[in-house]
DNA sequence: CACGTTTATGCAACTAGTTGCACAAGCGGC
DNA sequence: GCCGCTTGTGCAACTAGTTGCATAAACGTG
């Protein structure tokens, strides 16, 4: 439902080929809307068919036969429309919480190790976000665009902070190995 | 991938019919793994076919022709297995953040109202969780099971707290109406 | 110059979740 | 006793996202 709009946003920021988009998704927009290259190519085809983007005619030859796309006015209009439409927040779906809940009835065996692993992953992600913040949002730059993008990054930072804290807390009060929380 | 395990957990906590499960999903497990009644019925059929649950033979007659299910040993084993298996956290996917990012290029028109609406929704959800916490987790009850379930609820509470704070912050530094953050 | 590797594009099939609808039985009232 | 409402169960079709694979050009190296 949102992938086409994620792609439109990325292409407005900078016209790109499928592969460039894939790379930029891996390290920017993909932080809050991930996509594989297969999804991206498929969607680029659709968007072109709908007249929302077009292939840049200029640079054709180079290696492979890469095509770069740019957003057409209709595409920009569609993105603006979609941005303004009210949408309900989608309900939380988290397997780790589900597993914790399940462990209250079937025992916590094996779970603690994975909690530690998640904690480490979230710490890493947090560090990565903080590095991006230092690099891309120094105090002096402060256009409205910067402020909006910084807000998005702050959400990522604060979410990872939440997870690291919650996981630390969870591990701290985890049942002893001998007491696995099993009911029957 | 996880719906069957959510159902197994719910059925272990208490054998139920499809409708009862649906209701309990709406106000408990569904907070972190939502499901519609259609999904639940379909999955109950599958689980029964796989021999992980069975219909309780006893109470057949009543209204409609409701069937209650209970978990078989194979089902409990499968849940325990799944709980212990390492799983990667699934990447964040959030349309609101995407829209905010898009608004940096196409303008923030219409977005602020929806941010306010989301703030209100998250405040409500937070209040609901806090009420559940007061009701279900008074200080004196403290079995390992309680502590695990309380941890899950705490995650919900802290997440909603994060969103209300972040949304408040976002609204506070939102561009003035005359300045909509548009680039070109 | 042949052979494996990287770059780049893309199709097809599968899985999970959502939406829309169907149907049957009891319930409540006029 | 019929009519509309609610309860309870369920199928079918659709949508979004994932996984696995196919293809082809250029590159680099022995």
Structure explained in plain terms:
The structure is a homodimer of 184-residue chains. Helices cover 61% and strands 5% of the residues of chain A. Chain A has 184 residues and is mainly alpha-helical. The first copy, chain A, has two domains: 3-84, Arc Repressor Mutant, subunit A, CATH 1.10.10.10; 95-172. A three-stranded antiparallel sheet of chain A has the order 1-3-2. In chain A, α1 crosses α4, α2 (18-27) crosses α3 and α6 runs antiparallel to α7 (144-172). Chain A is elongated, with a radius of gyration of 21 Å. The N and C termini of chain A lie far apart (44 Å). The relative contact order of chain A is 0.10. Residues 60-64 of chain A have low confidence and may be disordered. Chain A binds a DNA duplex (30 and 30 nucleotides) through α2 and α3. Chains A, B: Residues 92-173 form the Transcription regulator PadR C-terminal domain. Chains A, B: Residues 7-80 form the Transcription regulator PadR N-terminal domain. Chains A, B: InterPro entries: Tscrpt_reg_PadR_C, Tscrpt_reg_PadR_N, WH-like_DNA-bd_sf, WH_DNA-bd_sf. Chains A, B: This is PadR family transcriptional regulator.
């Amino acid at each position: 439902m949102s992938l086409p709009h994620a792609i439109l946003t990325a292409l407005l920021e900078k016209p790109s080929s499928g592969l460039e988009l894939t790379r930029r998704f891996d390290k920017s927009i993909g932080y809050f809307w991930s996509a594989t290259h297969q999804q991206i190519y498929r969607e680029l085809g659709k968007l072109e068919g709908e007249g929302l983007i077009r292939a840049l005619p200029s640079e054709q030859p180079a290696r492979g036969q890469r095509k770069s796309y740019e957003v057409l006015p209709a595409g920009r209009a569609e993105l603006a429309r979609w941005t303004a439409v009210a949408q309900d927040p989608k309900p939380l779906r988290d397997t780790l919480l589900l597993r914790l809940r399940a462990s209250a009835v079937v025992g916590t065996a094996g779970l603690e190790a994975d909690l530690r692993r998640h904690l480490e992953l979230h710490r890493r992600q947090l560090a990565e976000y903080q590095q991006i913040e230092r690099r891309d949002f120094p105090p002096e730059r402060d256009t409205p665009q910067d402020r909006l993008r910084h807000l998005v990054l702050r959400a990522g930072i604060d979410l990872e902070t939440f997870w690291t804290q919650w996981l630390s807390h969870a591990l701290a009060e985890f049942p002893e190995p001998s007491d696995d929380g099993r009911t029957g």
